[in-house]
Amino acid sequence: MAPFSGPRTPAHATIPGVSADPTTIMWFRRDLRVDDHPALAAAASRGPVVALWVADPALLGASHHRAPMRLMFLRACLEALDAALAERGVHLVVRSGDPAAVVPAVAREARADLVVATSDVTPYAHRRDAAVGAALSADEIGFERVGGPWRVPPDELAGSKGTGYLVFTPFWRAWDQVPVEPRITPPDGLTGPVLPSDGLDMLPQGDPPIAAGPSAARARLEEFIRGGAVDRYGEDRDLLADDGTSHLSADLRMGVLSPAQVGRAIGADRDLAATRVPFWRQLAWRDFYAHHMSRHPEVADGALKPSYREIDWDDDPALLDAWREGRTGFPLCDAGMRQMQATGWMHNRARMVAASVLVKDLLVDWRHGEAEFMRCLVDGDPANNNGGWQWTAGTGTDAAPYFRVFNPVLQAKRFDPTGAYVRRWVPELANVPDRFIHEPWRMDEQTQQEAGCVIGRDYPAPVVDHAIRRDEAIARYKDADARYAARREAAA
Ligand SMILES: Cc1cc2nc3c(=O)[nH]c(=O)nc-3n(C[C@H](O)[C@H](O)[C@H](O)COP(=O)(O)OP(=O)(O)OC[C@H]3O[C@@H](n4cnc5c(N)ncnc54)[C@H](O)[C@@H]3O)c2cc1C
Fold it and tell me: How many CA atoms lie within 13 A of 242 on its CB side?
C-alpha cells in the first residue's frame, strides 16, 4: 500500500452527530467497491469515515459523457456500493456540484481533516484535483491520493530514459515484472457522522445492459475462468461470433473490480499458466494507455504525432450519420456499430474495423468517432478509448502505421468466417448466402430477391469504394506529413 501521510490534527470539538476523532472523507470516483481498496482501507484505519460521491456537472453534462447506458450502469454500481457500505455501518453521501466547492463543504460539515481519493489521469481530473486540493488546503484540510484504477500506477514505470514508454512491448515486459499486490480486505465496520445525501436521481434509472456491482463482476470473472475461456483467449479473442472475451471492461471502468483482483483470480500472483498470458497481456494495454495519457495529456485533444493534427478530413455529416447508424454498406462495420448502439458494448475486433472505416474510408476525423464511442459504450473510458482510436487512426503511440489500412471485407472473412456475427446484428442480411455475406453488393439480382435483401432498398451498397478511399487516405496522411516538414524547415 502507498505510504499514508494524512495530517493527524487534534480532534475537533464535539458537535451533535460528529465524532471527536478526526474524520476522513473517502471520495469515491472510479473505485466503486469496498474490497481490495487501498484508499478506503487507509481512510478507515484513521477512524470515522464519510463515504462521498460527487455528481460533477462538468462530467455528467459534457456531451461525450451523456451516455445513457453507462450512466444507468454507474447508478446501479453506486447503489451496490451504498449497500456494501451500509452493511459495514455507513451510507454513501451523494452531493451534486463542482467538486472544488462540494468536497471542501462536505469536509467542513463532517469536521474532517483529510480527504482521500484514488488517482486519475485525464487532463480534466488533474485540473479538478488541483482545484479541490487548493480549496481544501485553504481550509487546512489534507488531500491524499492512494492507489488508482490501474494495476501499476501510470507514473511508476519510467523506462530506461525516465520518460516513460511509447511502445507497448517493452512496457508490457516491465509491467509484467511488477508483482501483483496482495488482497486488501474490506474494513469490517465503518463509523462516521451521518450527513444528508442528494440521492441518485440525477442519473437515469433503468436496467443497465449488464448486471452491475461487485457480485455481478465477480460472477462474470468466475465464469470466464471456470468455463475455460481464459485459457482459450489467445485463440478465440478475435472470433467475433464466439465472443471469447471476458466482458469485464465496464467493471474495470467503474472500479467495481480491481485489476489486481483479476490478476489474483487467474493466478498472476503465482505462476501464471502460459495459456492465460495473452489475457493478462491485454490488461496491460489498459495500464499502457493510462500511462500514456498521464505523460502526454495533449492526446486528449488531438493526435500525438504533431503532423497528423492537420490531416485534411472530409468530415461529411451524411457519411458520419451512416456510420453511426450502421448503414455504411460494409457489413462488419455496420454489425459492430449496431451491437454498440443496442448493448453499449462492441467486440474489440469490430471496434478496430469500425474505427478504421470511419477514418480511412469515410475520411472523418477520428475525434468524431471517439466522441460517439464515449456516448455509447458502457465501458467508455477516456484513456482506453483515445488510445484505441489513435492506434487505429495511426496518429498515436505504437500505432498501426498510416499506410496499413484495414480492409473491412478481408477482416470480416477472417474473423467472422461463417457470417454469424454479421447476421446477428444486421438482420437484413440474415438470408444472404455465405459467399456473399461480407460483400452483399456482389449478389446478382436474382440472388438478392431470393435472399430477401435488395441492395439499395433493404441494405445499402457501400457508401464509398474501399480501394479508392484507401489510396486517398494514404495521400492525405502523406500530405499532412509533407506540410508539417516544410513548415518546420521554414521555421528552422
Ligand atoms: C477504437 C477503440 C476504442 C476503444 N474504447 C475503449 C473504451 O472506451 N474502454 C475500454 O475499456 N476499452 C476500449 N477499447 C479496448 C477494447 O476494445 C475493450 O477493452 C474490450 O473490447 C472490452 O471487452 P472485454 O472486457 O471482453 O475485453 P477482454 O478482451 O476480455 O480484455 C480484458 C480487459 O483488458 C482491457 N483491454 C483489452 N483490450 C484492450 C485495449 N485494446 N486497450 C485497452 N484496454 C484493453 C479491458 O479493460 C478489458 O476489459 C477500445 C478499442 C478500440 C479499438
Answer: 15
Structural domain including 32 reads 23-148
Q: Is 0.90 topped by the overall pTM?
A: yes
* CA 332 to ligand 1 centroid distance, Å: 18
290 and 327 together in one domain: no
Q: Are residues 93 and 33 in the same domain?
A: yes
In this structure, what C-alpha cell is assigned to residue 242? 464466439
| 276 in contact with ligand 1, CB cutoff 6 A | no
Per-residue pLDDT of the chain (492 residues), as tens digits, is 343 444 333 333 333 444 457 899 999 999 999 999 999 999 999 999 999 999 999 988 776 678 999 999 999 999 999 999 999 999 999 999 999 999 999 999 999 999 999 999 999 999 999 999 999 999 999 999 999 999 999 989 999 899 999 999 999 999 999 999 999 999 999 999 999 999 999 999 999 999 999 999 999 999 999 999 999 999 999 999 998 999 999 999 999 999 999 999 999 999 999 999 999 999 999 999 999 999 999 999 999 999 999 999 999 999 999 999 999 999 999 999 999 999 999 999 999 999 999 999 999 999 999 999 999 999 999 999 999 999 999 998 877 788 889 999 999 999 999 999 999 999 999 999 999 999 999 999 999 999 999 999 999 999 999 999 999 999 999 999 999 999 988 988
Residues in contact with 362: Cβ distance below 8 Å, sequence separation at least 6, in sequence order: 314, 316, 319, 320, 322, 323, 328, 463, 464, 469
CA–CA separation, 95 and 97 (whole Å): 7
Picking from 295, 322, 342, the residue at the C-terminal end of a domain is 295
Tell me if 391 sits within 8 A of 400, measured CB to CB.
Answer: yes
Same domain for 236 and 266, yes or no, is yes
Our answer on whether the CB atom of 355 is closer than 6 Å to any ligand 1 atom is yes
